[in-house]
Design brief:
The structure is a homotetramer of 200-residue chains. By secondary structure, chain A is mostly helical. Chain A has 2 domains: 45 residues, Homeodomain-like (Arc Repressor Mutant, subunit A); 135 residues, Tetracycline Repressor, domain 2 (Orthogonal Bundle). Helices cover 72% and strands 0% of the residues of chain A. In chain A, helix 8 crosses helix 9. Chains in contact: A-B, C-D. The interface between A and B is large, with 45 and 45 residues. The structure holds a DNA duplex (21 and 21 nucleotides).
Chain lengths: 200, 200, 200, 200
DNA sequence: TATGAATGAGCGTTCATTCAT
DNA sequence: CATGAATGAACGCTCATTCAT
């Protein structure tokens, strides 16, 4: 299969990770930092150190690269949440750990916004009707958050989850627009207090 | 000066607004609905019914049109807030009226997101360092909101204002990504209850 | 209108015929000599001495150029037949004059085939389902030929017209494939004899 | 020699013809239906179920595949004519049988034209001077037809053969352009009558 | 002021061909 | 023999911007 995710480094002369992975990784960074429309395939190819023509061996269109980036994000999100599940036992500590994960990124977010939120916003405006795969980027953390609130015994778990995620997404928008990383820190602290204040 | 804001229709047959205004208005709509990068100057000229070559009489570059759109947004926001000031007397009713203004747009927001938030996100990623004029789009309502909270006697007025605006921006992001206008309605109700619950 | 067929040379500085015309003319020649697929837009632009980017001011797509070439062919055919109508009085002399027109081109046909027949063949195989405008290229002369046979009092005018055109098209195919211009001359002579031999 | 025509399936599980044969067969179909320029090597490899990289073991260039397709056509034509020689005794019945062979294909011809005529037309326009091998595609049936007319005692056998083939090729062109399979049927009937009417 | 026309750099994409194993 | 991967030149097309009148 062409779309192998494996490295091509076993016994070979080139010791770098697989090209497909490199392409997705480079694309992920560039789409995030420059936006989808401002990023050319040549940019991506160059950043991944892959000849331009070769990109099309792995992805038939630019849209397909975008999709692959979304999938990679989904994968990363799921892994991060699974890691939180492993490292923390109570719902409250899990939620606060997630909050911490988000605020830890305050500096990049002040530059480029939330990687998932801005990607959603941008792709919803593309004419080519990207298949709305981006929705998972926000659904997955909402669902996870909802599970935590439910585990706390809250019957309004879904509403709380939406409130939580909206608070984070909005803070990210303001943080980027105002270029104030501290804003996100501040909102993070508030959210942690809010989580602590919730009762069953 | 060439860039007159006045109509150019005096003595003419039709009473259409001046070309510059038509261009800004068309650009405002298209940038919002299609995104900045997906909108061509030809699109804008066509929508404004202005010959393409003529656009450059009013705006030297595409960036200048974008700036004019931002200015128009700023103007609209200020007018809207001034109107709220006029129509409502107490800070709480003003804040709830603002909330209502925002939720009233739930259907367009579900399609294109918040006109100001998405514009900020998008422009922050452009290579050509747009002069960060977008910041006013969010600063102005934050400051206005802060004034209301302060008038309520709250010493944490700024924090509350940020919390309020973040809640709205985040709700807009989720509303667009999940394509659920009701989500915004729901968050609006919650915000109104929250406002009512605040004490001096 | 952009698609003006007029010259742009009246009082202007450039004294060459209109660019659109030059483009269609160059395209017509190149499509004929090299085939549709082998001819690039850069080829056409170069031959017409028009900057590549400017081609798209006149034609939105390559297909549109091809269509314009077909229309030009249709126009030429109609003018040629009208000229035959004017210059000859009897159906028989008209038909023989047409035969002469065709055989006069024997040398180019030996190189590139019949300009209309080869264009039809090629375009029928394009995936993009060109709107079958090519059919007129053969229908028009068939109909004209049929009118002549009918004027001769033949009730089988349509069949004779098809037979005539098929004879010419087939001769053109063989002439090109075998690279023998004389073959077309010979078939032309035969056709003239055949026309003469027909009775009412 | 590497370019064996034999099967490579001895001892294998399936009895599929050898790769080379499959490639030529797939290429023959695709070149006919889509045209030479519109058919990629990947298309051919896919249709033949041969890995793309492997194609170059059998054919050094795309042109070589085209040549092989022509050779295959030549072979098929010769076989078909030999079969007619075997199955029919008199020249007239042989010629009418050939006519029947051709009209039997009216439906494909209405879609793609004559497999040999369109191939000739197309290849004559390629820049890379294909070695004019296509000429055999039309020469062989002309020569065979000429032999039949000569066997009938006609001294103008060559002219009649050219007339016959031109009639068929032209009918094929019209049939495809006008998309009327019946046109070929009709011309076939006329040709049979014509053959019958010929005297020594 | 106004405008149709022009311009060229660049983009996404294709494909015959080659290479390393 | 076989094959997945690689390569780069070229193609059709777009678009912000400029020009001539």
């Amino acid at each position: 299969m062409a779309n192998s995710d494996d490295d091509d480094s076993i016994g070979g002369s080139a010791a770098r990770p697989g090209k497909r992975k490199r392409l997705v990784s480079a694309a992920s960074d560039l789409l995030y930092q420059q936006g989808v429309e401002n990023t050319t395939l040549a940019d991506i190819a160059h950043a991944a150190d892959v000849p331009l023509g070769n990109v099309y061996y792995y992805f038939k269109t630019k849209d397909e690269i975008v999709s692959a980036v979304i999938e990679a994000h989904v994968h990363d999100i799921e892994e991060m949440l699974a890691s939180l599940d492993r490292r923390h036992r109570t719902p409250k500590s899990r939620l606060k750990a997630l909050t911490r994960e988000l605020t830890d990124q305050r500096n990049v977010i002040a530059q480029y916004g939330c990687p998932h939120g801005t990607l959603c916003s941008e792709l919803e405006k593309r004419t080519s009707g990207t298949d709305h795969a981006t929705v998972r980027l926000l659904e997955i953390p909402i669902e996870w958050t909802e599970r935590q609130f439910r585990a706390m015994g809250r019957h309004d778990a879904h509403d709380l989850a939406v409130e939580f995620m909206a608070a984070y997404q909005g803070a990210a928008v303001l943080t980027q627009a105002l270029r104030q990383p501290e804003l996100l820190t501040h909102e993070g602290r508030r959210l942690k207090r809010w989580i602590d204040s919730l009762e069953a």
